Every structure is written in structure tokens, then in C-alpha cells.
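User: Reviewer 2 asked us to show a designed sequence for the structure in our supplementary figure. I'm pasting the C-alpha cells here. Could you produce the per-position amino acids so we can include them in the response letter?
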């Protein structure tokens, strides 16, 4: 089987982002046959329909990276029980104009990470709502709400503990099987 390329979109621009740390751990833990790569969203300007037909180069480059991937993985915090604005903006840009929807038909998955107890469940659910409209086929199970993340990082502050790593491997194996269905 060919290696499947997964575009990883991190919904936080924070330097010490827990979500970015978990995304990097997922890159490290990815099973053979799955290649995860972060697609950066920090340079995307705000979406406007006025410029969607003559987009800036940053939008085009970003869309090409999505387009050239076999699947997409969102790793995101929850802001006010919903999607962080920067991630929503990146979802919008990827999906417009409708005839050039870069997400269309791709298999997807979502992981939400929070220092809070419920692991960004509200964000996880609302990312799924937007993804459905963008024609991304999201994996339904297992769900990944990673709460109390500060307690799940090892002393180095970078790597996750054994139990969390095991869960991420299970999640990635399931995602690989999901991608193979497409
Ligand atoms: C504007 C804002 C809203 C937030 N709302 C929530 C929330 O609804 N639920 C939650 O679990 N954490 C919330 N938080 C806390 C974030 O989970 C926390 O800042 C987290 O570290 C952000 O993810 P990151 O580390 O990847 O940047 C919020 C933080 C900010 C800045």
C-alpha cells in the first residue's frame, strides 16, 4: 500500500501550544504507511468573498498542500466552547470558492486538547459540523477529547505519558483504516 499523506491543521498559534505538542507526538507515533505533516495556518489573512477568486499566494500555497494530501487531521483547542477563529478561517479558505473546495471528498479526523477536564468536546463537535459541510468524511470513532493535558505530559513538557501515547497510537491505527476505505 502507498504511504498516505495526512495534512495536520493545528488550531492554535501559541508558541507553547499543547495542541501542537500533541500533533508532533502524533507525527512521531504514526504507524507505517501514514505520513503526517503540519500545514501552517499562521500566515493566512482573514477570509473574504471579495478576494476568493483572486486569492493571495499564501491561500493558494495552503490550498495546494491540502489538495496534495490524502487526508486531513485537525488538532485543536476549544475557545468559548467552539472552534478557534484561526482554525475556522483556515477551514473557510480551504473550502472556497465552492468549485475549488480543497477538502472535498477527503477522509478526516479530529483531536481536541485542553488543560480543562472535558478535553474541548464542544470544539470537537463543532469542527465536525463545519467539516460535514465542507464535504470532509470524518471518522466517527474513536473520539479524542484529551483533557487535563498538563498532567499527561512527561517531565520534558513535550512528550505525552505512556497511556496517552497508547491511545494516540490506537487512534492513528483507526484513522489509517478509515483512510484506506477511500
Ligand atoms: C479565548 C479563549 C477561550 C477559551 N475557551 C476555552 C473553552 O471553552 N474550553 C476549554 O477547555 N478551554 C478554553 N480555553 C483555554 C484553552 O484550552 C487553553 O488556553 C489551551 O492551552 C489552548 O490550547 P493551546 O495550548 O494549544 O494553545 C480558552 C482560552 C482562550 C484564550
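Assistant: Here is a per-position design you can include in the supplement:
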Amino acid at each position: 500500500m502507498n504511504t498516505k499523506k495526512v495534512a495536520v491543521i493545528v488550531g492554535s498559534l501559541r508558541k507553547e501550544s499543547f495542541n501542537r505538542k500533541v500533533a508532533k507526538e502524533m507525527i512521531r507515533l504514526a504507524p507505517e504507511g501514514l505520513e503526517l505533516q503540519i500545514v501552517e495556518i499562521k500566515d493566512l489573512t482573514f477570509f473574504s468573498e471579495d478576494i476568493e477568486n483572486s486569492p493571495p499566494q499564501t491561500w493558494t500555497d495552503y490550498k495546494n498542500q491540502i489538495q496534495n494530501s490524502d487526508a486531513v487531521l485537525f488538532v485543536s483547542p476549544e475557545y468559548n466552547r467552539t472552534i478557534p477563529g484561526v482554525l475556522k478561517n483556515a477551514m473557510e479558505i480551504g473550502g472556497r470558492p465552492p468549485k475549488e473546495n480543497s477538502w472535498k471528498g477527503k477522509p478526516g479526523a479530529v483531536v481536541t486538547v485542553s488543560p480543562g477536564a472535558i478535553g474541548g468536546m464542544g470544539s470537537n463537535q463543532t469542527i465536525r459540523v463545519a467539516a460535514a459541510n465542507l464535504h470532509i468524511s470524518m471518522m466517527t470513532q474513536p473520539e479524542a477529547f484529551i483533557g487535563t493535558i498538563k498532567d499527561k505530559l512527561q517531565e520534558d513538557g513535550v512528550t505525552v505519558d505512556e497511556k496517552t501515547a497508547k491511545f494516540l497510537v490506537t487512534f492513528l491505527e483507526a484513522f489509517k483504516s478509515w483512510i484506506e476505505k477511500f
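For the response letter, you might also mention the following. The CA atoms of residues 108 and 138 lie 4 Å apart. The radius of gyration is 16 Å.
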